[in-house]
User: What shape does this take?
Amino acid sequence: MTSETAQPLAQDGDADASAAEFTAHRPRMFGLAYRMLGSAEEAEDTVQDAYLRWSGADRAAIDRPAAWLATVVTRLGLNRLASARAQREEYAGPWLPEPVLTRDGVLGPLESAERRDAVSTALLVPFVAAAREGDLAGLERLLAEDVVWWSDGGGRVSAARRPVVGREAVLRFLAGVARRTEEGTEAALAEVNGAPALVSRLRGTLLAVTTFEVRDGAISGVRVVMNPDKLAFANRQLAAGSPLE
Assistant: This one.
């Protein structure tokens, strides 16, 4: 009688330990899948598929769980990437990765986050002020002459279907954006994918996430994700209390 009742308890304990070990590796797996796929939603699905394989595996035969899980996630990611490439070929306008807020460690350890460029952050603080005030002259001083602006609306919202190239062209484009910006839109700094970024919100809803490339003290590249589908993950992060700068 004792052995019959003790066995399920032992099995339950093994299951709990297995789930706990998987959870410990989850940020690294999510980060790996995300970097392969550029999609937080696809990365979440990939990690869930990895869990199904983990729960059905003979874990006594797995000497290095971290390496085993990384291999599984990589294989699953490659399978998903093959179908994702076909979808991206038909995507409306430039395709950019989904933004992920990373100050809460959701992507696991990020070397780039540990050695973030302080100059880039300092440069963006007056980028934020100028954007809030519609100060195009202030923005002009921050942009490199050959700056390139990419917009990802995915056909869901109004966005440039092709890159905007050059400081003057970008400023003209921004002047049009400023005229269409709804009153009450707020901009703030955040850490996205391990680097400084700008998030724009209206009444608590995320409208856009903007990331930057900086060269020689000037902004040389701007990437703006506005597709609501791609903002869903970051929106959930903000709703759950993920910190901004």
